[in-house]
């Protein structure tokens, strides 16, 4: 899998691919432990695929969080979310 192809997928497809890759990883580990697998390098490829999937998922989550909290700031002292001055009335003098 190439990371460019993974970035085109939606989150549900990525989660399905991640589950499949983790299952394949587990199967390969058991095969290696039982000396049934000749191509042990395949495990390395699956691990790299899992890391690519997790990277893309984290990127998509970060983008989603960024867009959902846009315009809001967090008060460092109280931890309250403020609207960033978007809805305040001007004070008359």
Structure overview:
- Helices cover 61% and strands 4% of the residues.
- The chain contains 3 helices and 2 strands; from the N terminus they run αααββ.
- It is mostly helical and 93 residues long.
- A two-stranded antiparallel ribbon has the order 1-2.
- It has a domain at 9-66.
- The protein has helices spanning 3-8, 11-33, 41-68; strands spanning 73-74, 81-82.
Using brief descriptors, characterize the structure shown.
single chain, 93 residues, mainly alpha, two-stranded antiparallel sheet, 61% helix, elongated
Low-confidence stretches: none
How far apart are the first and last residues' alpha carbons, in Å? 63 Å
User: Helix amount, in percent?
Assistant: 55-70%
The helix count comes to 3
Shape: elongated
The gist of it:
This protein has three helices and two strands; from the N terminus they run αααββ.
What layout of secondary structure does this protein have?
Layout (H helix, E strand, L loop, with lengths): L2 H6 L2 H23 L7 H28 L4 E2 L6 E2 L11
Antiparallel strand pairs: 1-2
């Amino acid at each position: 899998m190439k990371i460019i192809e993974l970035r085109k997928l939606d989150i549900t497809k990525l989660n399905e691919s991640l589950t499949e890759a983790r299952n394949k990883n587990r199967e390969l580990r058991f095969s290696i432990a039982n000396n049934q697998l000749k191509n042990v390098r395949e495990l390395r490829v699956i691990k790299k695929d899992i890391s690519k999937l997790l990277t893309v998922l984290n990127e998509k989550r970060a983008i989603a969080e960024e867009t959902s909290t846009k315009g809001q700031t967090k008060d460092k002292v109280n931890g309250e979310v403020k609207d960033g001055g978007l809805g305040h009335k001007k004070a008359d003098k």
